[in-house]
């Protein structure tokens, strides 16, 4: 549960994001680099303020845990990845061939044998 201070920080962060967009468009008479710089500075402030909240800290912790989990993954070797890719392509080809043959067989049975429609 967020405290009142965290809620205020989240609202302020949201207002800063909106302010960044508004500032970008209000500075339309200025050069583009100044508009982008103002946008990035205000947006950076909003992000910094967001990461000061419990929600921001939880997001950072989630990111750290995700990186830790990715490091535990045993990735396949290049040879294994190539073999699995070949298996997938072979399966897709065989399944496509099977579905095509099934379609043509049903077409022949329905149209030629049952209905008698000759093409």
From TrEMBL:
Subcellular location: Membrane
Principal location listed in the UniProt entry: membrane
InterPro entries: SecE_bac, SecE_sf, Translocase_SecE/Sec61-g
Keyword Membrane: yes
Xref: Pfam families: SecE (PF00584)
Gene Ontology terms, MF aspect: protein transmembrane transporter activity
Biological process annotations from GO: intracellular protein transmembrane transport; protein secretion; protein targeting; protein transport by the Sec complex
Membrane listed as a keyword: yes
TM annotation in the entry: 7-27, 33-51, 84-102
Domain of life: Bacteria
GO cellular component, one term: plasma membrane
Keywords: Cell membrane, Membrane, Protein transport, Translocation, Transmembrane, Transmembrane helix, Transport
Its biological purpose: Essential subunit of the Sec protein translocation channel SecYEG. Clamps together the 2 halves of SecY. May contact the channel plug during translocation.
Record-stated family: Belongs to the SecE/SEC61-gamma family.
NCBIfam families xref list: PRK05740.1-1, secE_bact
Record's subunit section: Component of the Sec protein translocase complex. Heterotrimer consisting of SecY, SecE and SecG subunits. The heterotrimers can form oligomers, although 1 heterotrimer is thought to be able to translocate proteins. Interacts with the ribosome. Interacts with SecDF, and other proteins may be involved. Interacts with SecA.
The name this protein goes by in its record: Protein translocase subunit SecE
Native source species: Vitreoscilla filiformis
Protein's gene: secE
């Amino acid at each position: 549960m967020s405290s009142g201070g965290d809620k205020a920080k989240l609202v302020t962060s949201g207002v800063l994001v909106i302010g960044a967009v508004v500032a970008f468009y209000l500075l339309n008479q200025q050069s583009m680099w100044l508009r982008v710089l103002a946008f990035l500075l205000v947006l950076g402030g909003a992000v910094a303020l967001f990461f000061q909240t419990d929600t921001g800290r939880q997001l950072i912790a989630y990111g750290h845990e995700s990186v830790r989990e990715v490091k535990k993954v045993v990735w396949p070797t290049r040879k294994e990845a190539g073999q699995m890719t070949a298996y997938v392509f072979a399966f897709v080809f065989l399944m496509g061939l099977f579905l095509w043959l099934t379609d043509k067989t049903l077409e022949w049975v329905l149209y030629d044998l049952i209905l008698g429609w000759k093409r």
